[in-house]
Design brief:
Strand content of chain A: under 5%
Radius of gyration of chain A: 23 Å
Order of helices and strands of chain A: HHHEEEEHHHHHEEHHHHHHHHHHHHHHHH
Largest interface: A-B, 31 and 31 residues
Mean pLDDT of chain A: 84
Number of helices of chain A: 24
Number of helices of chain B: 26
Shape of chain A: globular
Distance between the termini of chain A: 38 Å
Low-confidence stretches of chain B: 544-582, 606-619
Strand order of the largest sheet of chain B: 1-2
Number of domains of chain B: 1
Largest sheet of chain A: 2 strands, antiparallel
Strand order of the largest sheet of chain A: 1-2
Structural class of chain A: mainly alpha
Oligomer: heterodimer
Number of strands of chain A: 6
Strand content of chain B: under 5%
């Protein structure tokens, strides 16, 4: 399967499914449902094929910036970009085509560990959410068409390596989400939908401005090289590029974008993606959206959409503005810690089951921010690699547990028609299977050792401890708060005895089919984090960490120098722990 | 007649074929209506006359497209004369395109492309007009709409001030009349009257500005105005200390500001948009705006370019700062005022005001750009995309009025369930107007803003970047009111006593074509971009005449304050600090003083009195004039 076919089908298959759904007559709802399910399953299979190719020994295992060189674009006589030779890059999971040559805009897709893990997560959650949508009865055709459009745009966001293309997919995502909340949501759905739309649009303006600054900035060209050109000769880089890989190279290896402009770019990206993540000052749309959204859309929203914020931070904010990131690191880390604590405390005060889970998402996404911002460059960059790996793992773990939690809330809401924690109770006796599944997923979210949430929190807190003891202690304290609200919730929902809910049926087969993969992954990712995830995700994370650290160290000389006077650098050999050899070898090899 | 002027080349009339066809067809329509008036009912006449008008539109389109084709072919034919043209015409067309009729109109790629666009849009507007009976005087209506189009086509082609004014008036007078055409509704008359009163005042001010500009430069040709302004050296340029120039410029801005509905000259727009029948509103919002923007760019980016930022400061003496401020205020005011509107057409009126603000960003950018023509191409691109989306949107308004007699946003409730396909088309139009990818509105806006940021002008950059950021924030604000339309269509149940009927072809086709344009040029903008860049380049660069030397046709400037300096003086470096009193200027004034004194003396002597003037009065007047000139200095 050629790269073009494989990568394009990731976002095109759901879109074809959408067209198919639209073509089916409105009356035959079963056909619509099965068609949509088939489309999501096929998409998921394609993501697994991509995963198989990536994990295998093919050309796709090389770092992304080495792979993209094989797919070269060059200008033909009329000035239009054409593909020169793709045969050298066959099977490397990268596609480049010219799209709008006047602005150097490309149709540019590629996968590495970071994006691939989220693509697989998207494939999985969309299948499960599609199954969870089975009891939607209002305007089935429109629902599934919008659902598939949403899946297509999310896939597009993760696979695109061109900033313009990324932005297009990012914006396309808003529309189906707006309608899915606005038409199929709860009583206050219009308010929640427009709030979601305006917040996200507002955030995307910041992202667009950052992208435009990167595109048009004319900086110091000494040493700035255009990394990939047709003839293999090195050309000076003069801006005017939307190419994420090229811009990453320029921003991290050269002084083209100075500290001043990088600070701006970083802050703009940060605001844009923190709204999507969401983090503390920009989170208020999330509880509204979650409370009003139907269950499967909540699953998508918590499971994937929030990850787009985190993905943006890992893929764009840090690598494209490493100096700015380093400059703002403490502030961002503090914001992350505050989000963790604030989300946990507010979650504790909720009586609406869904709102509680929504605030727990705010709290958990705080770990992502903290893990990325814990940039201690004085000691081994390995600790920073822990932080980013932890953030990445948190996104995957949270994608699974939060989707599961929202699904479980939906299951009880379908039966009891209430989400009020004070009215629920005693469900453990009435619905034992439901109780068992809930325990696993909620404990996974809480961070119980042996389940997936723990691995992520542990990595992040270790990195934070090496960065700032105060922040680490505060973040670790939050574990207690998390345990507090989750255990209290479980107690209120499942323990005790209740006459009100007697006779509620336990989960049916469809619901079990949705829940079991999530339960299995919650346990498996907690027990085999390395085999299942980190073995193929962390090399890409290592690349990102290396380039960011190198840039921040070498380009931000003056900043480092002032710090070095006070804190002498700890030698690598002493500080490097030996638990993660893969990252250690990569990291110390280059530094 | 001035012997230096060459005669009109009558072959120039070929270049006006599309406009001629439309003008004549207006008369044909009028006569046909007269013939049918007694025999057919008004609705039957509406269809008959409408189809007749469409036939004329098709004919004009054929003429316009054929003209472009002939020009291209004749130019491509390098060897000998092509057999299918008479030798004289072949020779005529094979010369480089440029000014015709003694340099008053241009006939080049820009005019060709814009003519085709105007005619296509006219077709959609005429089509839309056939949807329902808002009047009985169909012959007059269709004739006026057609003649308004002739005005637009010539306005976009005009190359000098008088033609510009005449064509501008041709266009707007037809539009005043059609605005008030729905006689059964009072708000139509109200809108028409407001449009007319505001319009005539602004036209008067505009004309005054034009006359001052002529007084300053001694010419009405854009190209020579530019030469005169540019030739007087950097110190003399600019508006500080030049009250006449500044007045001329501001008065012209008033005129253009009215036509494009820029704040603070926008007050007519909401009422006229709401009052006019929907197809007329569509034509005001799209055709009139497109033509006025083209004229504005020709005057400001071509003729008055030397006055853009003479001292190289953005907010220095020049029109750039004024345009930047007007642009910022216009887009912000338009968007915020649109937020509270309940009426669909009124909302579109404010959105059209806001869009004028965005486009002025592009104009400001093009004036500082080193490659201004390409940058102006982005404004044309945006105008085209915006125009097609708006024609579709006003077709929706026509639909509402036809079936519900009102056109509030709430009248769209439940459309998504009733006719999902058209609702999806309207959704695409609204998203394109917000600027959400992958639709053309997004790319158009981004393209314009990217051209704005892409200026290497160090001092203008922060301001342009600020304008772009403001524009982007404004698009978020605009999302709020456009989404209200989507909310009504998809999130609400149909309500009210009257239901929307089937749309019918005359409503569907403008909506569907607008949608297709929004989708196609959003995903493949490349082709339209290059066409618009080409058009903008030919619009803003010097045109050479097809009919005899263009330079010879421009009368030598005989102006006062801005007479071009002799080459030796012009090349002499101007002292940098002499903005207040330029030595050349002082010398010139002194000369004029002496002359005036001599004249006054000559007249004061009794023998030299003119016969037909009473002696005392003439003497007094001249003495006063001399005094005034003395004071002036």
């Amino acid at each position: 399967m050629s790269d073009n076919l494989l990568l394009t089908s990731l976002w095109l298959l759901p879109l074809i499914g959408m067209v198919g759904v639209l073509a089916v007559p409105r009356r035959s709802e079963a056909a619509i449902k099965y068609l949509a399910l088939a489309a999501t399953i096929i998409t998921f299979v394609v993501t697994l094929i991509a995963l198989g190719l990536y994990v295998g020994d093919g050309p796709s295992s090389a770092p992304l910036q080495d792979r993209v060189i094989h797919n070269v674009l060059q200008k033909d006589g009329s000035g239009a970009l054409t593909i020169a030779d793709e045969s050298a890059g066959e099977g490397d999971l990268v596609v480049r085509r010219s799209w709008i040559p006047y602005f150097n805009i490309q149709y540019y897709l590629g996968l590495d560990g970071i994006s691939l893990s989220l693509v697989v997560l998207t494939g999985l959650i969309s299948v499960l959410a599609c199954l969870a949508s089975w009891n939607i009865t209002k305007q089935v055709k429109g629902y599934y068409a919008l659902f598939l459009l949403l899946v297509a745009s999310m896939m597009g966001v993760f696979v695109s390596l061109d900033l313009f293309l990324f932005y297009v997919f990012f914006e396309v995502m808003l529309l189906p989400m707006y309608f899915l909340i606005g038409i199929w949501g709860g009583p206050d759905r219009e308010y929640a939908a427009i709030k979601f739309l305006l917040y996200t649009l507002f955030g995307s303006v910041f992202i667009l401005v950052a992208v435009l600054i990167l595109f048009f900035w004319s900086g110091d060209t000494t040493g700035a090289q255009s990394l990939y050109n047709a003839t293999g000769q090195v050309q000076p880089f003069t801006g005017h590029s939307f190419d994420i890989v090229e811009l990453t190279g320029v921003a991290t290896k050269t002084g083209y974008y100075g500290l001043g402009i990088q600070s701006w770019v970083f802050v703009l990206f940060l605001i844009g993606f923190l709204i999507k993540l969401p983090s503390f000052p920009f989170h208020t749309w999330l509880p509204d959206a979650h409370v009003e959204a139907p269950t499967p859309i909540s699953m998508i929203l918590a499971g994937i959409l929030l990850k787009i914020g985190g993905y943006g931070l890992i893929r764009l904010a840090w690598p494209l503005a490493p100096l700015g990131a380093h400059y703002w690191a403490y502030f961002v880390a503090a914001l992350g810690v505050f989000s963790i604590l604030y989300g946990a405390l507010v979650a504790m005060a909720q009586t609406d089951f869904k709102k509680l889970v929504a605030y727990s998402s705010v709290s958990h996404m705080g770990y992502v921010t903290l893990g990325l911002a814990a940039m201690n460059l004085l000691t081994s960059p390995q600790y920073y690699a822990y932080g980013v790996n932890g953030a990445m793992f948190m996104m995957l773990a949270h994608g699974i547990t939060s989707a599961g939690m929202f699904f479980l809330v939906g299951v009880i809401y379908d039966r009891a028609h209430t989400r009020d924690l004070n009215k629920l109770g005693g469900l453990n006796n009435i619905m034992p299977l439901y109780g068992a599944i809930s325990y696993v997923i909620f404990f996974g979210s809480m961070g119980l050792p042996g389940l997936c949430g723990f691995v992520a929190e542990f990595f992040v807190v270790v990195a934070a401890f090496n960065y700032s003891k105060l922040l680490a202690v505060l973040a670790a304290t939050a574990v207690v708060l998390t345990a507090g609200y989750i255990l209290w919730t479980l107690q209120r929902v499942f323990l005790g005895r209740s006459e009100t809910w007697k006779g509620l049926p336990d989960m049916d087969l469809r619901e079990i089919v949705v829940a079991v993969p999530l339960v299995v992954l919650t346990i498996a990712m907690g027990v085999f984090p390395n085999t299942l995830v980190l073995s193929w995700v962390s090399p890409s994370v290592g690349e990102m960490v290396n380039s960011v650290v190198t840039a921040a160290r070498e380009l931000n000389v003056s900043a480092i120098r002032t710090v070095e006077k006070t804190a002498p650098r700890i030698p690598d050999s002493i500080s490097a722990p030996s638990t993660r050899p893969a990252v250690a070898s990569r990291a110390s090899g280059s530094l | 007649m001035d012997p230096n002027l060459s005669n009109v080349d009558f072959r120039d009339f070929w270049q006006l074929a599309p406009a001629t066809v439309l003008s004549v067809w207006g008369l044909v329509v009028l006569l046909a209506d007269l013939a049918l008036a007694g025999r057919m009912s008004a609705p039957a006449r509406r269809r008959a006359i409408g189809w007749l008008t469409l036939a004329g539109v098709a004919l004009a389109l054929l003429a316009a497209a054929g003209l472009i084709q002939v020009q291209q072919l004749a130019k491509a034919e390098t060897q000998g004369t092509p057999g299918w043209l008479s030798p004289s015409l072949a020779e005529y067309f094979s010369r480089a395109g440029g000014a015709i009729f003694l340099g008053t109109l241009s006939a080049d790629l820009q005019t060709g492309v814009l003519n085709v666009l105007f005619i296509i849009m006219l077709g959609l507007v005429v089509w839309q007009s056939m949807a329902w009976s808002f009047t009985e005087d169909w012959g007059e209506y269709f004739a006026l709409v057609t003649w308004a189009t002739v005005g637009m086509m010539l306005l976009a082609a005009s190359e000098e001030l008088v033609t510009l004014f005449l064509t501008l008036e041709t266009m707007t007078i037809c539009l005043y009349l059609t605005t008030a055409f729905e006689k059964t509704r009072r708000r139509s008359a109200e809108g028409g009257l407001k449009y007319f009163v505001y319009g005539s005042v602004s036209s008067a001010l505009f004309l005054f500005g034009l006359s001052l500009l002529y007084g300053l430069t001694g010419t009405t040709q854009f190209e020579s105005i530019r030469e005169v302004l540019a030739s007087t050296g950097p110190a003399a340029r600019g508006l500080s200390g030049n009250v006449t120039g500044a007045t001329a410029l501001l008065l012209m801005l008033v005129g253009f500001g009215f036509k494009i509905a820029a704040v603070p000259f926008h007050q007519w727009a909401p009422d006229a948009y709401e009052g006019a029948p929907a197809p007329v509103t569509a034509w005001i919002a799209t055709g009139s705006k497109l033509a006025s923007f083209v004229a504005l760019m020709k005057v400001f980016l071509h003729a008055l370019q030397p006055w853009s930022h003479p001292s190289n400061e953005l907010l220095g003496p020049g029109w750039l700062g004024v345009i930047a401020i007007v642009s910022a205020v216009t887009m912000t005011y338009g968007n915020f005022a649109a937020l509270v509107q309940r009426n669909f057409k009124r909302m579109l009126a404010y959105s059209s005001i806001a869009n004028a603000g965005y486009m002025l960003v592009g104009v400001a950018a093009a004036s500082v750009s080193t490659r201004g023509a390409e940058a102006a191409g982005s404004v044309l691109f945006y105008l085209v995309v915006y125009a097609f989306a708006n024609i579709g949107a006003f077709a929706v308004a026509a639909w509402l009025v036809r079936d519900k007699k009102t056109d509030d946003i709430d009248d769209l409730n439940g459309l998504g369930m009733q006719s999902p396909l058209l609702a999806i088309c309207i959704l695409v139009l609204m998203l394109s107007l917000i600027g959400i990818p992958p639709f053309a509105g997004f790319f158009g806006k981004l393209y314009m803003f990217m051209e704005a940021i892409n200026q290497q002008h160090a001092k203008a950059w922060p301001t342009l970047m600020g304008l772009v950021a403001l524009g982007l924030m404004n698009s978020v604000v605009s999302a709020f009111y456009y989404v209200r339309v989507l909310k009504a269509m998809f999130l609400r149940e149909p309500g009210g006593s009257r239901r929307l009927g089937l749309a019918g072809g005359s409503i569907e086709i403008p909506i569907v074509i607008g949608t297709l344009v929004a989708i196609f040029f959003g995903i493949y903008p490349g082709r339209l971009m290059s066409v618009m860049q080409g058009a903008a380049v030919s619009m803003l660069t010097t045109t050479t005449s097809t009919s005899g030397g263009f330079a010879s046709m421009i009368s030598a400037p005989s102006g006062t304050g801005y007479a071009p300096l002799p080459p030796a003086m012009a090349s002499a470096p101007a002292s940098p600090k002499s903005t207040r009193l330029d030595p050349e200027q002082a010398k010139k004034y002194a000369d004029r003083m002496k002359k005036a004194e001599a004249q006054a003396k000559a007249l004061a002597s009794p023998g030299a009195q003119p016969k037909n003037a009473p002696p005392g009065e003439a003497k007094d007047a001249l003495a006063k004039k001399a005094e005034a000139q003395q004071e002036d200095q």
